Amino acid sequence: MATITTSLPDELVQKLSDYAKKLDMPKNKLIEKALSLYLDHLKRAAYAKSYKSAGQDEDMLTLAEEGMEAYFKQLEDETR
User: Fold this and answer.
1) Residue 63 has pLDDT above 90, yes or no
2) Taking the model in full, what pTM does it have?
3) With contact defined as beta carbons under 8 Å apart, do 17 and 27 qualify?
4) How far is CA 71 from the centre of its chain?
5) Structural domain spans, the chain
6) Mean of the pLDDT values across residues 28-44?
7) Cα Rg of the chain (Å, integer)
8) Buried b / exposed e across 38-71, counting CB within 10 Å, b at 16+?
9) Backbone angles phi, psi at 19, to 5 degrees
């Protein structure tokens, strides 16, 4: 496990301390959990942005439509 050193505003450090006491959790574990959740949020936001961009791309829309046609045909063939 790596060790990092950082500077944070006093107000944020106080909030961290307050929540760590309230949750009976070490501050480093609270930071680890919060950072993990935030990075996951950023990843999801990037996915959402890429899907919005793909929705505006004519080539991507055509490709998706062609894929859906093949999928529907496969479903029809299996239900016969």
Assistant:
1) no
2) 0.60
3) yes
4) 28
5) 16-78
6) 95
7) 23
8) eeeeeeeeeeeeeeeeeeeeeeeeeeeeeeeeee
9) -70, -35
Question: In terms of residues, how long is the chain?
Answer: 80
Place of tokens 């107000």: 11
What is the token pair recorded at 28? 């480093």
Token duo for residue 14: 């106080």
Nearest one of 39, 41, 17, 43 to 30, comparing CA atoms? 17
DSSP the chain: ---------HHHHHHHHHHHHHHT--HHHHHHHHHHHHHHHHHHHHHHHHHHHHTT-HHHHHHHHHHHHHHHHHHHHHT-
Give the residue carrying structure tokens 């890429």: 50
